[in-house]
């Protein structure tokens, strides 16, 4: 059973850069057709896609966030990461990582709450 | 960018009732790659249905999905107490893009 686990700071200051890592276990990141996604959910609100990295390392991101998002993958460490820059209070959210395999987001991390505050 | 609009915003039902949730897309969903998720407080979303009508592994058969193009429906034939939650539809667009509907809350009447 594939498992995903987000890690990173719970509190970051405005204007700083958030770095989150998603560790993948119970399966191989080398399997073909897997894509790895970041999704967030502000408190009490809906889900928002941040971006995706495919198995070849190509990245795709939400146009509303594109200029601030960098996503990378390190298959040797079974991890993929999110960098989100120029943070504001509007970036306060639970951040989830997930696997997109054949257009199904079956496996998700438990989510990590990130608060942007001075 | 495809916008997904869910209705109703809140659905109040009693256990044993039939639930019908709607998701309408602003443009045709590519290859009907439309999924439904259930989310309970403090938990990650759980996929119920993918590709519009395929039930995910381990999902009870009281959950079913239908529709194509721009109009999709999630039906729960007989709502169980554990089904009261928020439900989201989600589609895959071009370049691996993902969009979600705003959610429907299923409440106990």
Unreliable residue runs of chain A: none
Strand content of chain A: over 45%
Can you give the mean pLDDT of chain A? 96
SSE string of chain B: EEEEEEEEEEE
Q: Greatest contact pair?
A: A-B, 22 and 26 residues
Count of strand segments of chain B = 11
Oligomer: heterodimer
How large is the count of helical segments of chain A? 0
The strand count of chain A comes to 11
Note the main sheet of chain A: 7 strands, mixed
Structural category of chain A: mainly beta
The geometry of chain A reads as globular
Shape field of chain B: globular
Category from helices, strands and their pairing of chain B? mainly beta
Task: Determine the number of helices of chain B (DSSP H or I, runs of at least 4 residues).
Answer: 0
Helicity of chain A, as a percent range: under 10%
Mean of all residue-level pLDDT scores of chain B: 97
Question: What Rg of chain A do the Cα atoms give?
Answer: 13 Å
Give a description of the structure.
The complex is a heterodimer of chains A (about 120) and B (about 110). With about 120 residues, chain A is mainly beta. Chain A has strands at about 5, 10, 20-25, 35-40, 50-55, 60, 70-75, 80-85, 95-100, 105-110, 110-115. In chain A, the strands form 2 sheets. In chain A, strands 2, 4, 5, 6, 9, 10 and 11 form a 7-stranded mixed beta sheet that branches. In chain A, strand 7 and strand 8 (about 80-85) form a beta hairpin. Chain A starts with a strand and ends with a strand. The model of chain A has no long low-confidence stretch (mean pLDDT about 95). Chain B has about 110 residues and is mainly β. Chain B is built from no helices and 11 strands. Chain B has strands spanning about 5, 10-15, 20-25, 35-40, 45-50, 55, 65-70, 70-75, 85-90, 100, 105-109. In chain B, a hairpin with a 2-residue loop joins strand 7 (about 65-70) and strand 8 (about 70-75). Chain B is globular. Chains A and B meet through strand 4, strand 5 and strand 10 of A and strand 5, strand 9 and strand 10 of B.
């Amino acid at each position: 059973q594939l498992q995903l686990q987000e890690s990173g700071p719970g509190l970051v200051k405005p204007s700083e850069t958030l770095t989150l890592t998603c560790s993948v276990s119970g399966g191989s990141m080398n399997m073909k057709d897997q894509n790895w996604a970041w999704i967030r959910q502000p408190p009490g609100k809906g889900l928002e896609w941040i971006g995706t990295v495919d198995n070849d390392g190509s990245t795709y991101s939400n146009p509303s966030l594109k200029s601030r998002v960098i996503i990378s993958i390190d298959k040797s460490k079974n991890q993929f990461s999110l960098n989100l820059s120029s943070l504001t209070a509007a970036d306060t959210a639970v951040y989830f990582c997930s696997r997109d395999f054949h257009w199904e987001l079956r496996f998700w991390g438990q989510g990590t709450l990130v608060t942007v505050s001075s | 960018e495809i916008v997904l609009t869910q209705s109703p915003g809140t659905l109040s039902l009693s256990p044993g009732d039939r639930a019908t949730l709607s998701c309408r897309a602003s443009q045709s969903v590519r290859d009907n790659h439309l999924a439904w998720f259930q989310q309970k407080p403090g938990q990650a979303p759980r996929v119920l249905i993918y590709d519009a009508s395929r039930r995910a592994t381990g999902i009870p058969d009281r959950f079913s999905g239908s529709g194509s193009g721009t109009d999709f429906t999630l039906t729960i034939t007989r709502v169980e107490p554990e089904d009261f939650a928020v439900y989201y539809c989600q589609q895959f667009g071009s370049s691996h893009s993902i969009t979600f509907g705003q959610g429907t809350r299923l409440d106990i009447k």
